[in-house]
Amino acid sequence: INAYIQRCQQKSTGVFPRGPAIKSATPIDTRREMQETMMLGLRLMEGVSRELFQKRFAQDMVSVFGSELDLLLRAGLVEWDGENCDNVRLTRQGRFVSNQVFRQFVD
Fold it and tell me: Which of 1, 35, 46, 65 is most exposed, with minimal Cβ within 10 Å?
């Protein structure tokens, strides 16, 4: 822990989010970032916003993950929700088997 505290006390030379307390980082490609966005976002009650996904990646969620979403929708594990039905989220059934849902977004 002392090494961490020392890094925190150093003047930052990295660009956010890489500050002095970061010992190492593993860069990921855009595809992996999209997959992780889906997996982490589906853990939230509101799910993943199609609009925010589009803004972040300049690609439509359905064009990237259409087959995965179709499979999960047909199985009743995810649903479209939100004010404009543009958030995909886990259903009650999907929450019970969420790890199986998340596996669909891993290559």
Answer: 1
